[in-house]
Design goal:
The protein is of the alpha/beta class. Helix content is about 40%, strand content about 20%. It is globular. It binds S-adenosylmethionine. The site of S-adenosylmethionine has 21 residues, from loops.
C-alpha cells in the first residue's frame, strides 16, 4: 500500500455523511458518559501519547483537552465537515496548535511510518471499511509506535450480543452509521496488531447497546 492520492482522500472523505444537527447534538449526547467516566478514560489513555501524533475520526474534539504537553506534532483528522468545524473551534478555544486534515480513516494522506502515536476513540464502530482503515493505521504508524484506542464493541454476554445484532440497523440509522455489534478488537488483531486492553467497562458511560467500552493500546509485533 502507498500514500493515497489527494483525489482518493477527498473521494473517501466525501463518503462520510453527517448533518449540522447531529454534529451539534454529539456533545450533549455524550455529556453524561463523559461525566461518569469517559472523560477520565480519555485522560488516562492520552497520557501515553508521544512524538508525532495523528488522531483519526476526531469528531468535535472531545480528546483535545486531554493531550499531554510537549508533543512534537498533533494532526487531527475528521472527514465530516460539520464535526470538523466544531473540532477547529474547540482547538482555537483551547489555544491548541493542531494541524487539521479532512480525511477518512480508509485513506490517510500521509507517507508510510509517519507517526509515533495514532489515536482513535469511538471511531471504528462507524468507519465504513474497518479492514481498510486498520491497514492504513498500520501503514502510517512507525514500527515501534502505539495505537491508543477506546471503542465500544459487541458484548460477550450472549443475550446482549443478540440484542445488539438484532438492532444494529435501526441503531446505525439513528447514530450516524455506528455498528453496535462490531468485533473491533478481533478485527484489529486480524490486521496484524497485538492489542493490550487496559480497561473493559460494562457499566454506565454509554447506553447498554453501546457497551462494553474497552480502552487499550495496539502495537505491531
Ligand atoms: C462517535 S464519533 C467519535 C468522535 C470522537 N473520536 C470522540 O471520541 O468523541 C465517530 C466519528 O468518526 C467519524 N467517522 C465516520 N466515518 C469515518 C471514517 N470512515 N473515517 C474516519 N472517521 C470517520 C465521524 O464523523 C465521527 O466524528
Amino acid at each position: 500500500m502507498s500514500t493515497p492520492s489527494a483525489a482518493e482522500v477527498e473521494r473517501r472523505a466525501d463518503r462520510v455523511h453527517g448533518s449540522g444537527l447531529s454534529a451539534r447534538l454529539y456533545d450533549p449526547f455524550l455529556w453524561w458518559g463523559e461525566k461518569s467516566g469517559l472523560s477520565k478514560k480519555r485522560d488516562r489513555l492520552l497520557e501515553a501519547a508521544r512524538g508525532e501524533v495523528l488522531e483519526i475520526g476526531a469528531g468535535t474534539g472531545l480528546n483535545l483537552a486531554h493531550y499531554p504537553p510537549g508533543l512534537d506534532r498533533l494532526v487531527v483528522s475528521e472527514p465530516e465537515q460539520h464535526k470538523a468545524d466544531l473540532l477547529l473551534k474547540r482547538a482555537a478555544e483551547l489555544d491548541l496548535e493542531v494541524e487539521f486534515v479532512r480525511a477518512s480513516a480508509e485513506a490517510l494522506p500521509f507517507e508510510d511510518n509517519s507517526f509515533d502515536t495514532v489515536v482513535a476513540t469511538l471511531v471504528f464502530c462507524t468507519v465504513g471499511e474497518p479492514e481498510a482503515a486498520i491497514a492504513e493505521v498500520k501503514r502510517v504508524l512507525r514500527p515501534d509506535g502505539a495505537w491508543l484506542l477506546i471503542e465500544h464493541i459487541r458484548s460477550d454476554r450472549p443475550a446482549i450480543g443478540r440484542i445488539q445484532d438484532s438492532i444494529t440497523r435501526p441503531w446505525a440509522r439513528l447514530a450516524d452509521g455506528c455498528q453496535c455489534n462490531r468485533r473491533t478488537i478481533e478485527m484489529i488483531e486480524a490486521g496484524g496488531f497485538e492489542v493490550e486492553l487496559t480497561s473493559v467497562a460494562d457499566k454506565a458511560l454509554m447506553p447498554p447497546i453501546a457497551r462494553p467500552i474497552v480502552a487499550g493500546v495496539a502495537r505491531l509485533p
